[in-house]
Amino acid sequence: FRQCYSTEDQATYLSQEIEDLFQDKKLVLATWIDLRKAFDKVWKEGLLKKLRNSRIKGRMYRWIKAYLHNRKARVHLDGLKSKKVLLRHGVPQGGVLSPTLFLIFINDLVAELPQGVKVAMYADDLVIWCTNEYATVATKLIQRAVDALTSWANRLSVSINTDKCSTKLFTLSPKQKAGTIKINGELLKDKQPTYLGVTFDDRLTWKQHINKAAAKARRKLAILRKLSGTTWGASQKNT
After folding, report:
1. Residue 239 has pLDDT above 50, yes or no
2. At what angle do helices 98-106 and 44-53 cross, to 10 degrees?
3. Judging by beta carbons within 10 Å of its beta carbon (0-12, 13-18, 19+), is residue 163 exposed, middle or buried?
4. From CA 127, how far away is CA 117, in angstroms rounded?
5. Eight-state DSSP code of residue 145
6. Residue pLDDT, tens place only, 168-182
7. CB 142: neighbour CB atoms within 10 A?
8. End-to-end CA separation in angstroms for the chain
9. 3-class secondary-structure state, position 221
10. Three-state SS for 55?
């Protein structure tokens, strides 16, 4: 949410971290965590408590409290209006203050992680990773981090969508194999992750990302060819 920082910066930061560790002949085990409807599920009372702990008080605190509470919504469809519903959770979608309030809400997440585990987050796209010479050691550390993150999420009424979570071992050695990572007893998928639009493979060859980008470009090019044809209307072959 900072000016002049984009998704490309965040994806580049992660890829450079992995590349640097490859140079040191180390592996990286990363896990992507999906926070279900992160902005819509912000626990308001928990957020207000964090504001108080951050010494935000007086008129500013009362204004934010009034801004968050007693917000209602309804659906407009084909000229019809539903009844108003009280929004008990979440920060306003599209609100100028919402990104800042969301960051305050999740700010203590980093302190929950064990030493040696790094975290990168862009909005609600979260990835944690660690490095070691051995995959077994990295797996144990990431599992500890996932358990700590799960406990943090439970305390703040944050829901983790395990179906969209994944883990990946980045290594140049074919002998290294990652163990299993679980969230609430559910085994995380080991697949090629796409982080902020960039597909990461285990050796950072970028082949899959390039193939996806090329396929997308070919589809767009096919449409342009149709639109820029020298003839228009029905095909003469069918008349």
Report:
1. no
2. 80
3. exposed
4. 10
5. H
6. 999 988 888 888 899
7. 27
8. 57
9. helix
10. coil
Residue 162, SS3 per DSSP: helix
* Residue at token pair 């992995």: 18
Ramachandran region of residue 217, left (φ > 0), alpha (ψ -120 to 50) or beta? alpha
The three-class DSSP label of residue 149 is helix
Dihedral of CA atoms 151, 195, 15, 176 in degrees, nearest 10, equals: 70
Q: Using one digit for the tens of pLDDT, what is the confidence trace for 109-146?
A: 989 999 999 998 887 788 999 999 999 999 999 999 99
Alpha helices of the chain — where are they, by DSSP H? 7-23, 44-53, 58-68, 98-106, 109-112, 135-155, 207-227
Q: Which fold is adopted by the domain 7-43+89-219?
A: Alpha-Beta Plaits (3.30.70)
* Calpha distance 28→137 (Å, rounded): 11
Q: pLDDT tens for residues 67-120?
A: 998 888 888 888 888 988 888 888 888 888 898 899 899 888 989 999 999 998
* Residues 89 and 44: beta-carbon distance below 8 Å: yes
Could you give the CA distance from residue 40 to residue 91 in angstroms, rounded to a whole number?
Answer: 6
Q: For the whole model, what pTM was predicted?
A: 0.80
Interatomic CA distance for residues 29 and 31, integer angstroms: 7
Amino acid at 187: L
CA–CA distance, 34 with 124 (Å, rounded to integer): 7
